[in-house]
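Ticket 4471: requesting a sanity check on a complex prediction with adenosine-5'-diphosphate. Repro inputs:
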Amino acid sequence: MLPDYRVRQRDFLLEISRAMTAQLDLGEVLRLVLNASIVMLAGKMGIVALRDGNGFYRIRATIGIENERIPQLDHLLDEMVSLSDADADPEVLNTRLSKMAITLDRRLRQSLFLPLVIAGEPVGLLIVFRTYRMDATENDLQILQSFADQAAIAVHNAQLYARIDYERKRLAAILEYSADGVMILDAHLHIVGFNRALERMSGWLSQEALERNVDEVIVWKRVEKGDLRQALEEGWPFRTPATAPPEILYVEGDLLRRDGLTLSVGITYAPLLTADGHLSNIIANVRDITNFRQAQEMQNVFISTVSHELKTPVALIKGYAGTLNREDAAWDPQVIREGLTVIEDEADRLTELIENLLATSKLKAERMRLEMSDVRLDQLAAQVVERFRTQTQQHELVLNFPPDFPIIQGDETRLRQVLDNLVSNAIKYSPNGGMIEIGGGVDDETVTVFVRDQGVGIPEREQERLFERFYRVDDTLSRRTKGTGLGLYLARTIIEAHGGRIRVKSKPGQGSTFYFTLPQR
Ligand code: ADP
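Returned structure tokens:
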């Protein structure tokens, strides 16, 4: 027969072990462990410390100790870390423990130290302080050891659970805030997850979309490739060989949003299989490919425009040269001059186009390199204006720079290209003529140059995009007017390479003003 107190001790231990292992909240487990230890060992104070990711012990629960003392104790624990190993010298360990006890309370007489170990790996430690000294029997030590083992398991489980819970929350947050639309389907194609981005893309609120069948929410106006239903009928997710990861399915087309608008999207369906290979969920990643489609469209338009733009002047040059060169004709000087003027103008246009093309393709390959020198922007503008005056009778080109306009540091050839493009646009996009003013202003550290026209103007929503590569406003004038959508892209790149800024102010029908600002130094 066990003595009465031993029976009680064993029952208590059993009960506490059950309570510990049933609990998954780490804080709660630590409190239980510490309480039980204090009761069992008739302690006055106690601490539980857990090893963090860097191998340091940090106090996670205390009894009888004020919170303010914890940093100091953490520090003392650090000193003991190496000593908590199984092969540590018990003498040294005891000395350190006594030091800790004295710091806490002079009345403490004994410290009991229990390492918490799982599969040979230390996960934490438990220290109980007593106000009296009593040596433990062999039996006491056994009971304590089995308690410590139980406690270590409970702590370990709670830690694993906390980690899984954290991972789950982290994943949920990633899905929720992902810039792509994310949707989770169950095996019957019912929606069980629907993130914010997809709310924006589809026009469906998550609460409304959840539990519906995917076909109610993902409605296609036009499918270009792939088909989820058909793939499922054909046995998707296929796995060949059976050990290979399951195949991903891609569907692309125009999605019919809830409000009736359409959106070009690409959806990647990734299957999630159960351990025995059955489909349990499908994770759908929905990407808005409108910009990608537009970029493709812009490239296509660009290529056809460029070939057209190149062909027209070449045809004109060839035609005039051929005519003037006819041996059977004696042209009078007036006709010859007119023909040569056309040839010269068209050659100029070709040069400008080729320069823009070359500059752009070079920009793609490397960052723009500038050849810096002194630049007089007012004089540069005057030269540009002089050249364009000969090309238009409809427009009045006016210069408006203050006297003593500062000389700045810049790449003259590039800046001339900017002015060329801005003035050429001002002419192109004011088909009814009018005044074109090129002027400047000075600030403490910057200079600003503007090119103002009285042309067709630009709607607000287009103004940001003008500076993108290949971008052209989609209106009848731009469609009729020759251009590649490269001029402003180049202008912006050049100005930004100088550390400056370019912008536009415009209202449809009221002309446009393009400004660029450059640092003086
Ligand atoms: P493009 O070769 O088409 O002229 P740009 O990059 O120079 O290419 O200009 C892009 C678009 O911006 C033009 O197609 C035109 O629609 C618009 N744009 C540029 N400058 C003006 C302007 N001064 N007035 C009105 N629209 C302009």
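Notes from triage: The first strand starts at residue 45 and ends at 51. Leaving this open until the requester confirms.
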